[in-house]
Amino acid sequence: MVIDKTKTMKKILIALILALTFGSVFSQDFIIMKSGDNIQSKILEVTTTEIKYKKFDNQTGPIYSVLKSDVQMIIYENGTKDIFKESNSSKQTDLCMQGQKDSKQNYIGKKSGAGWTCAATICISPLIGLIPAAICASSEPLDENLNVTNTELMKDANYNRCYKEQAHKTKKRKIWTNYGIGSGVWLLIAIIPVL
């Protein structure tokens, strides 16, 4: 995608002039996109990866978000500016860390096979229970079970990879924990008749 630098600079200059001239009257923030688009908004939060805002003309409406990497600058209602120039490696690190964090919060291991592993271990034996535990732990979680809340971030390869790797670690931990629980219960069931 080729961006006309002259048009982009004109749009930024116009937005800057409008913000400085009418900022105190209208009390709005401007999000200046790298594509040259300007969004009149009320900024709610700036995170490491995205900017959350409400449209200025609908402040009781939904919360929107844009990737910080797509934003060139924010001009706040008081005239201050945030200019975003990220290096590629720091962006990748930030997105990876965000993917891991989001995975820890969102992926709960639903349909991981942990329940069946525990049941097989209790009903048959810990030795046989190792088979479903090893099979389930070696397979990555299915995409439909990842419980992704931000599909836009999943389009980034680095975020996607880190999210899925963390989900797989969570799945393995859940399966092996249930295998241990099943083994403990099986052992108790085996010992109780002897006592």
Verbal overview:
It is a single chain. The protein has helices at residues 5-26, 88-106, 114-123, 126-138, 151-154, 157-191; strands at 29-33, 38-46, 50-55, 64-67, 71-75, 81-83. It has six helices and six strands. Strand 3 (50-55) and strand 4 form a beta hairpin. It is elongated. The protein has 195 residues and is of the alpha+beta class. It has a six-stranded antiparallel β-sheet with strand order 4-3-2-1-5-6.
Topology (elements, then pairings):
Blueprint: H1 5-26, E1 29-33, E2 38-46, E3 50-55, E4 64-67, E5 71-75, E6 81-83, H2 88-106, H3 114-123, H4 126-138, H5 151-154, H6 157-191
Antiparallel strand pairs: 1-2, 1-5, 2-3, 3-4, 5-6
Descriptors:
195 residues; alpha+beta; elongated; 16% strand; six-stranded antiparallel beta sheet; 6 helices
Strand content: 15-25%
In total, the number of domains comes to: 2
The outline comes out as elongated
Number of helices: 6
The count of DSSP E runs of length 2 or more, i.e. the number of strands, is: 6
Please list the strands of the largest sheet in the order they lie side by side. Answer: 4-3-2-1-5-6
Structural class: alpha+beta
Largest sheet: 6 strands, antiparallel
Rounded mean pLDDT score: 84
**Global Rg:** 25 Å
What's the quaternary structure here? single chain
Helical residues, percent: 40-55%
Stretches where pLDDT is under 50 for at least 5 consecutive residues are none
Give, in order, the helices and strands: HEEEEEEHHHHH
